[in-house]
Design a protein that fits this description.
Elements (H helix, E strand, L loop, with lengths): L2 E7 L3 H12 L5 E3 L2 E7 L2 E7 L7 E9 L2 H13 L4 E9 L2 E9 L5 E10 L15 H6 L6 E2 L7
Parallel strand pairs: 1-4, 5-8
Antiparallel strand pairs: 1-5, 2-3, 3-4, 6-7, 6-9, 7-8
GO molecular function: dioxygenase activity; lyase activity
Protein name: Catechol 2,3-dioxygenase-like lactoylglutathione lyase family enzyme
Keywords: Dioxygenase, Lyase, Oxidoreductase
Amino acid sequence: MKRFHVHVGVTDIDKSVAFYSSLFGAEPAVLKADYAKWMLDDPRINFAISMREEAVKGIEHVGLQVEDKVELEEVYGRLKAADRPVLEEGATTCCYAQSEKSWIADPDGVVWEAFLTESESTTYGGSPDLDQLASANAASSACCAPQLAPAKTSCC
């Protein structure tokens, strides 16, 4: 069963943990000095916050977390069928977890990730250059950027 994911950038981790713990009526499942994550079943959501100097404040991205590789392949297929460039990150360390993931942006630039978390990590990890998703031209000009799957073109 898939779980909705929201990641929010915050300016004060302690105040935000207190606020969201009160809002959700639960303490975070993961709590670090710069990160917290709630794995809620009602509503079924993976809600994460982080305090990073370079991060956007407010909603950073949304996504779908899957429970196994079969669901991951199903969601990856949907991303590829969505007629937008896909950033296939693959195996990565992100948000204190080892995951397999891909990224896509909707037509208005809202970034979505699809991922399977396989284990925990002792480090926060990195983030891909998601600005690539805003423009396929930007991705092709970057020397070391992961390759984007080409967008399908449609004709009227």
